[in-house]
Amino acid sequence: MLTCTWSALIILCSPIGKVLLMLLQPSAFWILPGIVFAFTFLMPTLIITGVRAALRKKNDTENQDHSVTITFTISILFMVVSYYLLKDIAIAIPLNLYLLSAISTCILTMMLKPFWNISYYTAAWGNLSGLLFYLCLSMPHIYLSPFLGIILISGAVGWNRLATLSHRHGEIYAGYALGFATTAVLFATLL
User: Fold this and answer.
1) 30-35: which pairs have CB atoms within 8 A and are 24 or more residues apart?
2) If we measure between CA atoms, which residue out of 177, 142, 134, 176 comes closest to residue 156?
3) Could you state, in order of their start, the residue ranges of all structural domains in the chain?
4) What is the pTM for the complete model shown?
5) What are the tens digits of pLDDT across the range 109-154?
6) What CA–CA distance (Å, rounded) separates 46 from 99?
């Protein structure tokens, strides 16, 4: 869930973001990442923690199996709220496209989950990699290092999912490819 906040900071700290932020008050720099952090991480985490605690109290194993679906549904709802809060701010256009790609990836992954255990985690990192790839195409001297760093982190996340026997290799690669492709397609068509 923190990948949305990271994307906001990456976009706003870029040369494009700095130029656009000059149009705003200096204190406004933290407002956009603050909104994204609050609505895509903080509030969903608090609600998800409460829902999981309630499910544990019930000791209902059937509902605990659906906790991943509940988690991503809550995340999607809050990403939609963030999108609508930021949609009219011209500075946030790349961030809004990233939020749309994250929402699309979550929905696609949830639709495929009953048929194939695609990794949500690697799909999220694939989204962030897709964003950095697209930014790297326009300014490689600035975004190449973060892009390579995110790829390494994505590999570590994938390895962790394999080591915990949560997924198989194909599920890891499919999740990453789905996230990356969703972001790349949205950025290529809408920006």
Assistant:
1) 32/8, 32/86, 32/89, 32/91, 32/92, 32/95, 33/5, 33/8, 33/9, 35/82, 35/85, 35/86
2) 176
3) 3-190
4) 0.82
5) 888 888 888 888 899 899 999 988 988 888 888 888 889 999 999 9
6) 20
Answer whether 71's CB lies under 8 Å from 78's CB: no
Report residue 160: phi and psi, to 5°: -60, -45
Q: Which residue stretches of the chain have pLDDT < 70?
A: 1, 16, 19-21, 23-29, 59-67, 90-92
Pairwise CA distance, residues 155 & 186, whole Å: 23
Secondary structure (3-state) at 59: coil
Query: What sign does the dihedral 172-175-179-184 (CA atoms) show?
Result: positive
